[in-house]
Amino acid sequence: MKHLKYFSLVSIIIVITSCGLGKKDLPVIGFVDAFQDASIAPAKTGFIDALKKNGFEDGKNIKLAYRNAQGSIPTLTQIVNFFVSKKVDLMATCTTLSSITAAQKTKTIPIFMMVSPTVKLMNMEGADGKGQANLFGAVEDLNYIDTSFSNIPNFIKPKAGKLVVGMIYNQSEPQSVDAKKRIQADADKLNITLVALPLNSSAEAQLVTKSLLGKNIDAFFANPDNSVFASFETILKSCDQQNVPIFTSEAGLVQRGAVAAFGADIYQWGYQAGEQAAQFLKTHSTAGLQSEMVKVRRRVYNVAAAKKYHITVPPNFEAVK
Predict the structure, then answer these.
(1) Which helix (H) or strand (E) holds 135?
(2) I need a surface site. Which of 91, 118, 176, 177 has the fewest CB within 10 A?
(3) What's the alpha-carbon Rg for the chain, to the nearest Å?
(4) What element of type H or E holds 194?
(5) pTM score, two decimals?
(6) Rounded CA gap, 189 and 241, in Å?
(7) What are the φ and ψ backbone dihedral angles of 143, each rounded to 5 degrees?
(8) Predicted pLDDT at 17
(9) Which of 46, 40, 90, 41 is nearest to 65 (CA)?
(10) CA end-to-end distance (rounded Å), the chain
(11) Which tens digits make up the pLDDT trace of 212-238?
C-alpha cells in the first residue's frame, strides 16, 4: 500500500511538471486549488466569470493553467514551484493552504487569494504588522463566526438544561485553532456548553466525530476548517444517524446538508478576487490593489435539513437548492 501511495504521488508530480504552459504569448494565470471540494468549487467559477466580464478569456487573450493538489501537501508544493519556475504572470489561490504555500514560494508574482483568511490569521504578518507586498484578492477574518454561532439558539432548544454544541478542529491549522478560541468565547457569552475535540487530518474525522456524538450534544458546529470541508459528508452521515443537526459559518456546506449558515458567498468571493486580477491584467500594475475583506455574505438554510429536524427558520434566511 505504501508503494502504491508513493507511485500515485509520483505520477501526479510527473503530470504536473510535464504539462507545459505552451508558448508564453499570452498572460498566464496559475490557478492553485488545494483540494477537490464541492463547497469551494464556485470560487473558481466566480473568478473566471469576473475575468470574462472584464474581457479576459482562456485561450483568447489569457492562458488559465489550473492545477488541483487533491489534498496532498507535497503535490501542492510541486504545483506552486512549477508555476514559479514558469514565471506565470499571476497566481490565483483557493483556500488557505494554497495561499500560504504560494506566499512562501514567491515574493514577486502577484497572488490573488480567495477562500482564505487574513494575513494575520495565516500568521504571515511581518514585524511591521503587514503582509508581503504581492498578496492581493479577497480574504476573511473571524468576526462573522460570532453571528454564525449565535444563530444556533434561534433554531433549536436544548434537550436538557444548557444547550450543548460540539465541534471538531484541526489543531495543526492556525486558522482552525483561532476559530475554536473565538467560538469558545461566543459559547461562554451565550451560556452554551461547547465540546471541542481536536484532530490532525480529515482521515480522523469519522472517529473524532463519533466520539463527539457520544457526549450528548444538541448540535454540531462546522467551523472554517479544511479538514471539515474535506470530510463533510462523513461528518454529516454520522450526525444524521444520531439526529444531531449541523450549523456552520460556511454557506457552501448548507448545500451539502448543513441546516443553516451565515457566511461568505463562495462564488462572489472568487468573483471579487477575479475583479482584482482583471485590473492587474488591464494595467500591468498592482498600484491601488491590496487584499480586501470579502464583501458578500449570506444567511442561508437547507430546506430538507430544516424539515428533517422540524426547525422553523427565521424569515431573514434564504433557502438554497
Answers:
(1) strand 135-140
(2) 177
(3) 20
(4) strand 193-199
(5) 0.83
(6) 30
(7) -60, -35
(8) 46
(9) 90
(10) 40
(11) 999 999 999 998 887 888 889 999 999
Task: Let me know the angle formed at the C-alpha of 165 by 184 and 97, rounded to the nearest 5 degrees.
Answer: 60
C-alpha grid cell, residue 25? 504569448
Q: What is the pLDDT of residues 37-59, one digit of tens each?
A: 888 899 999 999 999 999 999 99
Q: Distance (Å, rounded) from C-alpha 133 to C-alpha 141?
A: 19
Look at the block and give the residue holding cell 497572488.
Answer: 111
Beta-strand relationship, 164-170 and 63-68:
unpaired
Is residue 294 packed enough to be buried (19+ CB in 10 Å), middle (13-18) or exposed (0-12)?
Answer: buried
Dist. CA 101–CA 80, nearest whole Å: 7
Give the cell for residue 2: 505504501
DSSP 203: G
Query: How far is residue 12's CA from residue 5's CA, in Å, rounded to a whole number?
Result: 11
Query: Which whole-number Å values give the CA distances from 1 to 6, 8, 28, 133, 207, in the listed order?
Result: 9, 11, 38, 43, 22
Residue with cell 454540531: 220
Selection from 227, 279, 250, 225 nearest residue 112 by Cα:
279
SS3 91: strand
Return the SS3 of 122: coil
User: 198 pairs with which residues across the strands?
Assistant: 169
CA distance linking residue 186 with residue 171, whole number of Å: 19
pLDDT tens track for 227-279: 888 889 999 999 999 999 999 998 889 999 999 999 899 999 999 999 999 99
- Please name each of the domains of the chain with its CATH number: 2-140+265-297 (3.40.50.2300), 143-263+299-320 (3.40.50.2300)
Joined together, the cell numbers standing for residue 31 give 490557478
Q: Judging by beta carbons within 10 Å of its beta carbon (0-12, 13-18, 19+), is residue 185 exposed, middle or buried?
A: middle
